[in-house]
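Posting this for the archive.
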Amino acid sequence: MKKFLGVLVLLLGVASLGFGQGLGFKGVGGGLGFITASMDNGNGTSSSLSGFLIGAHADLGEITKDISLVPDITYWSASKDPLKLSDFSINANAHYNIAVQGQFKPYVGAGLGYNSFTSTVTIPSVTVFGFTVGGGTASASASRLGINLLAGANYKLNDMLTLLVEPRYVLASDFNHFTVKVGVTYALK
């Protein structure tokens, strides 16, 4: 919990510095995507899981020329019987906007995120001579700071809506994962 509060204070501090320099809420949006996660089993092997994500983001404008501050929150869930893994993350990302002409605007970026993971294992029951033994679930939670490596593109549909596509790789110790998100940003005027 202390790590979570520390990251939250850091994110708010960075955002307030930006607002002091004339940044503000330029847009808000959300998206859906696909996740594939790799989890270290602790014995030299790993498990891969797939699932879906939902997220929300804010465009806080440019920190400096061509570098935008784009914090987001995401939730994803991935499973492969008997294991289910989920993550809620709060991220502070910076995008380097590559200067090109037209409606299509690619970017690369990086960020820092607080990831709160939950894993659940389903334990099967066994019936012997009419008696059922076992069954149920076991859960565990963990928190990790992650490094976000991302690339993407924005496509301006009109003055108010921008379509985005963003692949992202998150390095979070033994819970590394790759996501691809598709979404929209609504411009605030």
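The radius of gyration is 20 Å. DSSP finds one helix and ten strands in the chain.
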